[in-house]
């Protein structure tokens, strides 16, 4: 989604360097255009263009930027095509007010029509431009800059994070937050605003998350927070423990590869989750009439995995529901005795947040599993477990999927301890994950090499299947998603037994069929499905241990623990998707049309 940044500081702020570095750090969100606005000698200067930041350094003149206040934007088009005139920042008719915005303004057509009737001239197709013109309108009626912003936010309906500067008042940036994420950074030499915490870490680890319906005025040395009615709010910064080094690629070619190699330590971090919070969730699961897992994208596959796990191990039926569908068919069934568990890497996915808000409004209790501390989800739920995976820069989620699986498994294990006299299951699972972490660390280079070799034979294919049974089905779905996301090969996942009911019709000579086939109670059935595909000429790729049926095998150790084995089995699919992207000439960190955090419906 769109990303916004801003800075106001002293004369040594190096404005151009900050704007460039910060916009680069927002690239992973996905974007089609870039823009900046700054004030120099009370003159507002705007530079913007379609394209990638590194290709626009000279065009936008980052090295020629002077001043001590500026805002910037990376745009992912929603209203209007990717063009120079639709790029942010947007300005008013006077050329004094500049606005950057992440989100959607639902009533912008009506507001635009009213403004045009008043004589305002619009340049872009975007919803954002009306904000600059509304502020201009209110300023003409002798309102202050802040007063005009307050009147404007009461007129617009939607989700938004907005930063505004005004060349008549070059000593402040006004920041506005409703539903879309926005953070204030505080340091001795400057204050900042950003859509993302990692963007700020090079400059400060003191961060203030803005809440919904809040405005912040930041100056060189101070900040003020207030609600949309102008009432002051006191809030101190939180200290973010992430180091700036975790947002750098280091020796890795891409963030996606780096983050896959971080998975062993992510497992160790995830098992350090607070036992009191896990107990809280486990006890409330046992009390609830119904349990709903809510998530989107990769996180949905993690909760689907949990639903299989809870049914198999705990004999508890939990309903995994894609967040965007929850409001359409599940919300009407919610009661105060139900429990919502929302899982989100960013904690800012709009569909997830909306589902939690509406369910809790009906009396349901809610919990979160989230990676970004201070995100909106952490503030909506009754309690939450942090993933502790560190910033995930690659758009395609990898290490956070592993963290989600571990945490959901630990909740399942804790339920066993609560309901049975033998209280050792949780400790046993923790030890299993410690062992899994070390084993994964040892075999990662081997899997990396084998999947790179395999990618050479698959890279020219345009379609493939990923098939499994039981706990392997959510893994197959996640693996297929990864292949689609970054390599643009059309990959479909099915329960292996379902392949006879239609999918097998597409199988011809050389068609890649990837089977997740652990040596468990499902293997004999999967072996039959493999033979059915092989008889039709499929290229059989096996993630497992027994290779008599396969053309290629990615061999993994058998840990004799379903949860630990499941974690190992997703890794080859993550690495295969990465190498397929690279071999096909694509950047796996920045897949087309995708964004890291979907903050609009």
If you had to describe this structure to a student in words, what would you say it looks like?
This protein has 601 residues and is α/β, with parallel strands linked by helices. Helix content is 38%, strand content 23%. It has 3 domains: 3-247, 4-Layer Sandwich (Glutamine Phosphoribosylpyrophosphate, subunit 1, domain 1); 249-423, 3-Layer(aba) Sandwich (Rossmann fold); 445-590, 3-Layer(aba) Sandwich (Rossmann fold), CATH 3.40.50.10490. It is built from 18 helices and 25 strands. An 8-stranded antiparallel β-sheet has the order 3-2-4-1-10-9-11-15. A 7-stranded antiparallel β-sheet has the order 5-6-7-8-12-13-14. A 5-stranded parallel β-sheet has the order 17-16-18-19-20, sandwiched between helices. Helix 17 links the parallel strand 23 and strand 24. The termini are close together. The model has no long low-confidence stretch (mean pLDDT 90).
Quick structural gist:
Helix content is 38%, strand content 23%.
Portion of residues in beta strands equals 15-25%
Unreliable spans are: none
Mean pLDDT: 90
Number of strand segments: 25
CATH A-level architecture of the largest domain = 4-Layer Sandwich
């Amino acid at each position: 989604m769109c990303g916004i940044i801003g800075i106001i500081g002293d004369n040594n702020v190096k404005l151009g360097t900050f704007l460039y570095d910060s916009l680069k750090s927002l690239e992973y969100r996905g974007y089609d255009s870039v823009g900046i606005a700054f004030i120099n000698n009370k003159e507002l200067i705007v530079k913007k263009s379609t394209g990638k930041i590194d290709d626009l350094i000279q065009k936008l003149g980052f090295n020629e930027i002077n001043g001590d206040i500026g805002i910037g934007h990376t745009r992912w088009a929603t209203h209007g095509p990717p063009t120079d005139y639709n790029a942010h920042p947007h300005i008013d008719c006077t050329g004094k007010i500049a606005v950057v915005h992440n989100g959607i303004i639902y009533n912008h057509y009506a507001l635009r029509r009213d403004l045009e009737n008043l004589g305002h001239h619009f340049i872009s197709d975007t919803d954002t431009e009306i904000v600059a013109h509304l502020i201009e309108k209110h300023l003409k009626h002798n309102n202050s800059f802040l007063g005009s912003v307050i009147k404007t936010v009461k007129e617009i309906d939607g989700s938004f994070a907005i930063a505004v500067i005004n060349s008549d008042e070059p000593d402040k940036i006004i920041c506005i937050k409703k539903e879309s994420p926005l953070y204030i950074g505080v340091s001795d030499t400057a204050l900042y605003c950003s859509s993302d915490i990692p963007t700020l870490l090079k400059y400060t680890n003191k961060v203030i998350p803005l809440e919904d319906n809040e405005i912040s005025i930041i100056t060189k040395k101070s900040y003020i927070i207030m609600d949309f009615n102008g009432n002051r709010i006191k809030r101190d910064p939180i200290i973010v423990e992430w180091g700036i080094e975790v947002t750098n690629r280091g020796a890795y070619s891409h963030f996606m590869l780096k983050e896959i190699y971080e998975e062993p330590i992510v497992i160790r971090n995830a098992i350090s989750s607070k036992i009191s919070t896990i107990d809280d969730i486990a006890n409330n699961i046992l009390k609830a009439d119904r349990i709903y897992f809510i998530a989107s994208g990769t996180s949905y596959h993690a909760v689907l995995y949990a639903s299989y796990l809870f049914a198999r191990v705990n004999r508890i039926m939990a309903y995994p529901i894609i967040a965007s569908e929850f409001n359409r068919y599940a919300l009407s069934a919610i009661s105060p005795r139900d429990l919502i568990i929302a899982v989100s890497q960013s904690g800012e996915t709009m569909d997830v947040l909306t589902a939690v808000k509406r369910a809790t409004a009906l009396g349901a209790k809610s919990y979160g599993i989230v990676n970004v501390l201070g995100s909106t989800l952490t503030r909506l739920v009754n309690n939450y477990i942090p993933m502790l995976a560190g910033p995930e820069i690659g758009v395609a989620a990898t290490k956070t999927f592993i963290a989600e699986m571990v945490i959901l498994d630990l909740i399942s294990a804790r339920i066993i301890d609560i309901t049975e006299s033998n209280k050792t299951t949780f400790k046993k699972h923790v030890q299993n994950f410690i062992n899994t972490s070390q084993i994964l660390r040892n075999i990662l280079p081997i899997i990396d090499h084998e999947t790179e070799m395999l990618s050479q034979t698959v890279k020219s294919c345009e379609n493939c299947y990923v098939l499994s049974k039981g706990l392997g089905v959510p893994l197959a779905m996640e693996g297929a998603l990864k292949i689609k996301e970054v390599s643009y090969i059309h990959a479909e996942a099915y329960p292996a037994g379902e392949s006879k009911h239609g999918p097998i019709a597409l199988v011809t000579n050389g068609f890649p069929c990837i089977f997740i086939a652990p040596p468990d109670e499902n293997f004999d059935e999967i072996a039959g499905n493999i033979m059915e595909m092989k008889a039709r000429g499929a290229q059989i790729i096996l993630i497992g241990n027994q290779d008599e049926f396969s053309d290629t095998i990615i061999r993994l150790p058998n840990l004799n623990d379903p949860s630990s084995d499941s974690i190992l089995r997703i890794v080859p699919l993550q690495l295969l998707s990465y190498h397929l992207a690279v071999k096909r000439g694509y950047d796996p960190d920045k897949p087309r049309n995708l964004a890291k955090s979907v903050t609009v419906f």
